[in-house]
Amino acid sequence: MEELLKVFDKNALIVGFLAVGLLAYFSDLFSKKVLNGRIPGSAIAIFLGLVLGYVGGVFTGGDKGLSDIPIFRGVGVLGGSMFRDFAIVATALGASFLLIKKSGVLGLISLIFGILIFFISGVAMAWLWGYRDAVSLATIGAGACTYIVGPVTGAALGASSEVIALSIAAGVVKTIAVTIFTPILAEKISLNDAGSAMAFGGIMGTSSGVAAGLAATDPKLVPYGAVTATFYTGLGCLLCPSLLYYLIEILL
Amino acid sequence: MLIYGVALLSFSYLLGQWLGELLGKLIGINSNVGGVGFAMIILMLLKELFERKGWWKHEMISGIDFWNKMYIPVVIAMAASLNVKAAISSGNLAIVAGIIPVILAFAFFPFLMRAFKHN
């Protein structure tokens, strides 16, 4: 046993491949045999991933979900930003440059609306919860955009660490919500072609959530959603601590 | 050769990320702006160039296609590495501020699409 653990420890990424492969296999089996394919196996696997992330957090008290358990360290490497971005770029293989160019303007408009919707409604929630200072309001509103925009804004404005932590949590909740709601609501909002996927990526913004949600809906849409979503965090980091923060200060 | 495809993907990735960092610095924020998007566009342009030159060979494609298909497993691993517990247990505001805007955005999405199609 000790020897096996040693092998696992030395080869974390390989263990990650095996663990994710097994999870995908059982999710697919469950999808086919129990649900008659009504929910795709990849959607179940992503959801189970979130559940395991929760379990990992409960067991270890760490902040990286399942990958804080030593033998599953490799899952964190495989799911880290390097492999995530690398694989997203590879999805461009199946995308058409012409279609992206055609919907470029729509993508840009949706990015701006996306930032505004999330920031304003995030600020409104914080207001309802009793926050009245512009710095906390802007930080929580930024957190509603993504879990990166939140702390970047909070740090720039000098928000308290408690508010920054809250903004990160709101951003992670957003990622999870987009992941779960996208495959459920895709048909209702006619999210079914390259143009709508680009607009969707711009509105929702969270690269991880959009990518995971579209993967569970229709993998062909992933590159189109990703190509706009990738600009969202940067645009949010630009607008939230500056223009949008000043707007709040003026309104108060 | 398979590695040519992987190398082409890596080249696009690194160049795109670099552009993203430069753009972030240019507009004065400490964050990568659109690095992944730039990388995707670079890869698509290179694909067109290679096709025209007749260099776009099956084995090369399969080196990129492997990572294209690894995308969903990577997303599963990413979901399992999120700080789900903290997100759920850090109070009602985090949950409300995380979920309500998403619902609003879903409600707004069809209006945006309709408005855009009219124009």
TrEMBL record, chain A:
Q: Which UniProt keywords apply?
A: Membrane, Transmembrane, Transmembrane helix
Which parts pass through the membrane? 12-31, 43-62, 82-100, 107-129, 135-157, 164-185, 197-217, 229-248
GO terms (molecular function) for this protein are: sodium:malonate symporter activity
Keyword Transmembrane helix among record annotations? yes
Superkingdom classification of source: Bacteria
Q: Which residues form the Malonate/sodium symporter MadM subunit N-terminal domain?
A: 5-251
- NCBIfam families assigned to the protein according to its UniProt record, in alphabetical order: malonate_madM
Name of the molecule in the record = Malonate transporter subunit MadM
Q: Which gene encodes it?
A: madM
Automatic annotation (TrEMBL), chain B:
Q: Which UniProt keywords apply?
A: Membrane, Transmembrane, Transmembrane helix
The gene name on file is madL
The question of whether Cytoplasm is a record keyword is answered with: no
Q: According to its UniProt record, what is one Pfam family this protein matches?
A: MadL
Q: Which domain of life is it from?
A: Bacteria
| Name recorded for this polypeptide | Malonate transporter subunit MadL
Organism annotation: Algoriphagus aquimarinus
One term under GO cellular component:
membrane
Q: Where would you find the membrane-spanning parts of this chain? A: 26-46, 66-88, 94-113
Q: InterPro entries from the entry? A: Maln_transptMadL (IPR004690)
Lineage start: Bacteria, Pseudomonadati, Bacteroidota, Cytophagia, Cytophagales
